[in-house]
Write a structure and sequence with these properties.
- This is Aminoglycoside N(6')-acetyltransferase type 1.
- It contains four helices and five strands; from the N terminus they run E-H-H-E-E-E-H-E-H.
- It is of the alpha+beta class and 148 residues long.
Length: 148
């Protein structure tokens, strides 16, 4: 399958929000639209859209430039905040093609590494990351204390 990858644009907002909701359903579609609006104004965050030759959406990925990420050596560092592929199109190279396009763009911008994370029990995501060329660097359990 031929896959077209391009950076997200403001006109992609409704479609992007629908896909984000499928990945992160703790926010409403409208809340995702607000987040997208803020993201498009922020030079440290960007999204990529995967399309079929017929212009049908196949998935998306988002990157944020972070000051630091566990397991990385460079600072600042691009971080793959999320990636979602329509279940009908998984295991057909969509994720790999998204990561390849992001990688090429990041190299052109002078970055040396791309970081990501996955839930400790999410073995499917671990395998996908390995297939996309990521290497596991560490396992971490984060804690928080609410201050009152």
């Amino acid at each position: 399958m031929s896959i077209v990858i391009r950076q997200m644009q403001a006109s992609d907002g409704p479609l992007w929000a629908e896909m984000r909701f499928k990945l992160w359903d703790s926010l409403s579609v409208d809340e995702h639209l607000g987040d997208i609006g803020r993201m498009l104004k922020n030079k440290r965050r960007t999204g990529y859209l995967a399309l079929s030759p017929e212009n049908a959406p196949l998935g998306f990925a988002e990157i944020c430039i972070r000051e630091y990420a566990n397991g990385c050596t460079a600072q600042p560092v691009p971080f793959l905040e999320g990636i979602w592929i329509d279940p009908k199109h998984r295991r057909h190279g969509v994720g790999r093609t998204l990561v390849e396009k992001m990688t090429a763009d990041l190299i052109e911008q002078g970055f040396q590494e791309l970081c990501s994370d996955a839930g400790i029990r999410n073995r499917r995501s671990h395998r996908a990351h390995e297939n996309w060329g990521f290497a596991e660097t560490q396992r971490v359990v984060y804690f928080r204390k609410i201050l009152r």
